[in-house]
C-alpha cells in the first residue's frame, strides 16, 4: 500500500471555473477603479523591465569601454526616475486594490449573512453551526480575485515574452539552452503544486468538520459534565486533532520539498548560465554588462514558469472558496409568497387535517385538527414527542405541513406575509436564547421602539417590579453573559417573558416556559395574561397540569388530539 502522501499528487475535486460569473455583479460596481488599478499595475511592472538593459549600457558603454561619466550620470538619473515613478504607481496600485478588495469582500460577506438569515429552519437541522462558520470563513479566499495577483499572472506573460526577446538579443545560443530546460522545470514543479493544493483543500474540510464538533461540544458542555463524559469527549476530539496534525505534517512536507526543489533547480540553472556565459565572456562573445542583464532577464523568464506551476496553489483554493460561496448562495430560502399583511386575529386559528414529518418517514402529526378562537386561552398537554411544539413551529412557518392547511380567519397562512405573522407572535420557549448584552437590549430586541418606562410598566402590571430590582442589582443595565449564563434559569425566563410581552403580540405562546419559575411568579404571569391580554390568543404547552388556571385544555398523543 503506497504512503498517504502520494495520494495527494493526483488531481481530485473539480471546480468549474465558470463559477467566476458569480463575482461579476461585484466587479461591475467597481469596474472603473479595477481598470485604473490594473493599468497602474501594468505600468509599474513594465517600467521595471527596462532597468536590466539600462544597467548593461551603463556597465559596458559608460564604465568599461568609454569610461563616459556624463553617460553614466544620465543613465543613473534615468534609472532613478524609473524607480521613483514605478514606486509611485506601485503604491497607488496597492492602495486601489486594497480598497477595492475590502469593499467587495464586505459586500460578499453581507450577502452571505443575509442569505444565511433567510435559510429555512430545516437547513440548521442538518448542518452544524460550527461547520457553517468554518465554510463562511473560507470565503475570505475570494480576496484573490480582487487583488493584484490575478492581473500579475497576465502581466507575467508580457514580461516573459519581453524577457525572452531581450535574452535572444543578448545571447541567443544560451537562451535556446534555457528554453530546453524550462519545460522540464515546469513539469517537475507541477505535481508538487497539485499535492499542495489537494492537501490544503483536505485540511480545510477536516478543519471545518472539527470546528463544527468543537462548537457542538462547547454548546453542550453542561450535558457533557452532567453525564460525566468529559474524558470520552476529550478522547474523540483528540483523535480529530491528531488527524489534523497528520495533514498539517503532510502539508509541511509538500511545502518543504517544493521550496527546496525550487531553490536547488534555480541554483543549478544559474550555475549553467554562469558557466556558459562565463565561457562566452572569456572568448569575447559576451560582455559583462550583457551577462548581468541576461541574469536579470532570466529571473523574469522562469519566474512566470514558476508562477504558473504553482498557480493552483493560490488560484485553486480561491476557486474552492468560490464554490463555497456558490453553495451558500444557491441554497433555497424560506418561501414567502404571501401578500396579505397579518395584523390581528379577528375570528380564529384553525389547523385542518395536518400531517407532518421531520425525516419524511415518521409522522409527528397525523390528521391533526384544532380550532382556537380569538381571545381564547389554551393549554396543550401530552407526552414528549407527541407533536406539541411542532404545532407552534408550523404556525410560525418554520416548517410546512406535508398535508393539510393552517388558517387564520379562514385565510391560508401561506397567503399572509411571513414576516407579519412572526411579528405578531410572541413566544417563550423552554430553551431560552439571550444575547451577551444588557437586560434592556435583550428585552427590547423584539420591539426597539419601546422604552424603559414600557418595561417598568409591564413589571408593575405583573407585580414583579420589586422582585426584578432585587434579582438584578444593576437593573436593566445588568450584563447577562453569553447565552444568559450569568443569570439563573428562572431569571432568563422572566427576561424572555418581558421580551415577548413588549412585542405586544396577537398570539402569545408559552412552550414549557414556566418550568423553572417560582409558583408565585407563575401565578402572577397568568393573572397578567388573563387581565391584560383578554382579547389575545394564548397557547401554553406543558407536560403537566397548571393549578388554578381555568383554561381550555387539549391532550395530544401520537400526533392526534385525544380530547379537547
Integer count of domains: 2
Which strand order do you get reading across the main beta sheet? 6-7-8-3-9-10
- What's the gyration radius in Å? 35 Å
Low-pLDDT segments, ≥5 res:
none
Detailed description of the structure:
There is one protein chain. This protein has helices spanning 4-7, 24-29, 31-49, 51-65, 69-117, 121-126, 129-138, 148-170, 172-219, 221-226, 230-282, 288-309, 311-329, 388-395, 418-423, 439-443, 452-461, 465-471, 489-502, 519-532, and strands at 348-357, 363-373, 377-381, 403-408, 411-412, 425-428, 507-511, 537-541, 552-557, 560-563. It is of the alpha/beta class and 564 residues long. The protein is elongated.
Brief overview:
This protein has 564 residues and is of the alpha/beta class. The protein has helices at 4-7, 24-29, 31-49, 51-65, 69-117, 121-126, 129-138, 148-170, 172-219, 221-226, 230-282, 288-309, 311-329, 388-395, 418-423, 439-443, 452-461, 465-471, 489-502, 519-532; strands at residues 348-357, 363-373, 377-381, 403-408, 411-412, 425-428, 507-511, 537-541, 552-557, 560-563.
